[in-house]
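Tokens as discussed.
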């Protein structure tokens, strides 16, 4: 599905607000388009908004966001230098995984964000982002921490910050992967 010419990046966040491309448009409170530095060299791509994001309209402001902030701080990266978004812009009810048709309906926005911002590095936070942007067959436990160069950008797949709540060992892995990102910028 192509985004029409008149829906270029500057207008997209506003125009997306009324989106009804999928059923999530009926249950969401906010469409969480993304936020951050429009000159960012790094883009972080998560999965979909959770409850706090749905209420505030901002990405990664709930528990997963606090975990992300901690990881950024510990690895010497600044949230204000980065652009943050997700594969799916509206909250799936009960925080279930987005369905295939919801991803397909929403992903043109993400492709347009990447095309417009042209980040050097795209960090895929979790399996959905990595499968969507790198390879649908990818296994995050095998792919994490390894650079993939594709379409003029460097992709770093890593675990989703929320995965740390179920498995503390993932924190070390995510930190390691973010350190590679910082090194690549230097
Ligand atoms: N998880 C995500 O993937 N994105 C958010 O914005 C919040 C939690």
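Sequence:
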């Amino acid at each position: 599905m192509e985004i029409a010419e008149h829906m270029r990046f500057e207008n997209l966040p506003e125009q997306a607000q009324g989106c009804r491309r999928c059923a999530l448009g009926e249950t969401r409170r906010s469409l969480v388009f993304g936020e951050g530095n429009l000159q960012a060299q790094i883009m972080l791509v998560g999965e979909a908004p959770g409850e706090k994001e749905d209420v505030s309209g901002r990405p990664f402001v709930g528990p997963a966001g606090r975990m992300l902030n901690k990881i950024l701080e510990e690895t010497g990266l600044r949230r204000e230098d980065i652009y943050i978004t997700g594969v799916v812009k509206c909250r799936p009810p009960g925080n279930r995984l987005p369905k295939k048709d919801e991803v397909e309906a929403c992903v043109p926005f993400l492709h347009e964000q990447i095309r417009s911002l042209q980040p050097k590095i795209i960090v895929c936070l979790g399996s959905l982002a990595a499968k969507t942007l790198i390879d649908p067959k990818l296994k995050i436990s095998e792919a994490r921490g390894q650079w993939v160069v594709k379409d003029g950008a460097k992709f770093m797949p890593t675990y989703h910050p929320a995965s740390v709540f179920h498995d503390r060992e993932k924190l070390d892995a995510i930190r390691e992967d973010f350190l590679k990102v910082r090194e690549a910028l230097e």
